[in-house]
Amino acid sequence: VIHDDDLERMTGVNAKVSETRSEELIRLKLRDPLEPNRTSGESPVPLSQLLLEFGGKTLLWLEMKPDGGAGLPRKVGDLLDRHIDRGRCVIAGARSQAWRQRQTQSQ
Q: Given this model, what pLDDT does residue 104 score?
């Protein structure tokens, strides 16, 4: 899961997250937060994997970025529906209205 719009700060790669395929993202190595010129050896974790590990065990807080694309609420919602019970996740950010619309349509 990457919070930034681009990969520079977290990986040192000059590319936008939205333009990078998930297969490429999980092969990248994250920068060491204490020594940014070194990698930590760890890779970004896909949201589906995060939900498998933590969904249902704790309340999750997801922030959806405004430039995530119009299909983002549907994609995230589909993952949440498969992995956790409704009410176990808080959706925040500029796409919150789109999320509420999706919730209403699926009820």
A: 47
